[in-house]
Write a structure and sequence with these properties.
Shape: rod-shaped
Strand content: under 5%
Radius of gyration: 58 Å
Structural class: mainly alpha
Number of helices: 1
Number of strands: 0
Largest sheet: none
Distance between the termini: 196 Å
Helix content: over 70%
Length: 139
């Protein structure tokens, strides 16, 4: 009887081992399915997050480009206005300089004329004195 029981035990062990292998294969398949399902789910989430990030980055980039353009335009306007103002100021300074130069020339001319008149008077007086002295000598 012992032989039968050992044979039955071996059969039972083999059946249990086969059942164990079957369960293990089934568990591996289930884990594989679950793992691929989770991978797909997380891959979709990562793709969605990347897409949202790219969209927000593009939107931010566009907003910054718009701000940069408006700043450039405003600076160009300010720059052109300042250039115009500088040109006007330069023109005013040139006109003022020309006017002052004309005034100085006129003032110098008047002084020279006054000095010439003084010299002529001095020369005339000297000539008269010379003629008087000559008349005294000749007389």
């Amino acid at each position: 009887m012992e032989k039968i029981s050992t044979a039955q035990k071996n059969i039972y062990k083999e059946q249990e081992y086969n059942n164990f292998l079957k369960e293990m294969r089934q568990m591996r398949r289930n884990q594989k399915k679950e793992l691929t399902s989770e991978k797909k789910t997380y891959a979709k989430q990562v793709d969605r997050i990347k897409s949202n990030f790219n969209k927000s980055a593009e939107k931010l980039s566009n907003d910054l480009q718009k701000k940069l353009l408006t700043l450039r335009k405003s600076h160009e306007n300010v720059l052109s206005n300042e250039k115009k103002r500088l040109d006007k100021e330069t023109e005013l300074v040139k006109l003022t300089h020309q006017e002052k130069m004309a005034e100085l020339k006129e003032a110098n001319f008047k002084k020279m004329e006054q000095e010439r008149i003084k010299h002529e008077k001095s020369l005339d007086l000297a000539k008269l004195k010379f003629e008087r002295e000559m008349a005294k000598l000749n007389a």
